[in-house]
Amino acid sequence: MSRIRGKDTSIEVMVRRYLFSRGLRFRKNDKRYPGHPDVVLPRWHTIVFVNGCFWHMHDDCPKGVRNPKSNVEFWSAKLLRNRERDRMQRAQLEADGWHVITVWECELTKTAREERLARLYEQIVGQSADAAAGPADDAAGDSGMAVSDDVKSNGVTPVRAASAGPMPSETSPGNVVVPNTTTPPDTSR
Ligand SMILES: [Zn+2]
């Protein structure tokens, strides 16, 4: 499997360089998550896979359907397994609250890459309204306020924990609930 992921291929490096140049910070090939995603952006609750079209059987893509001339059955079975595994890993990550984006090799050709990478950036930072209800990964510890778990699971984030993006109140004012009216005693002595 390490042939497929875990090694920096040039398309992965290209994507990482771009995201870094746009000021995003991330972990790479994080082994804590299914599929060891190429790019993990905890702040944006987003995971990016950079997939080779052949190895991951890109649908409707010439590179994704061409089989090697020899050992056709062996390769077909292997690639089908790859694809099934990709699907399960993605479902698992999404169930855990991650926004999962796949960038395909064929989207990174010389002529296409500029547009694709710009769109990728927008895909990452443009969904921050949803991000407030994302994985608890970096939401914990951010706030000194005691918020019960059932409040969190409603997607309501304390105002003080909204450091991951625009304030929730900008998009959905009716959704903001202040857990209690007693403010933390930061002026206590
Ligand atoms: Zn493709």
Automatic annotation (TrEMBL):
Coiled-coil blocks: none
UniProt entry keywords in alphabetical sequence: DNA damage, DNA repair, Endonuclease, Hydrolase, Nuclease
Location of the region described as Disordered in the Swiss-Prot/TrEMBL record: 129-189
Top-rank taxon, per record: Bacteria
GO BP: any one term: mismatch repair
Gene Ontology molecular function terms on file: endonuclease activity; hydrolase activity
Keyword Nucleus: no
Protein name, per record: DNA mismatch endonuclease Vsr
Native source species: Bifidobacterium eulemuris
Lineage of the organism: Bacteria, Bacillati, Actinomycetota, Actinomycetes, Bifidobacteriales
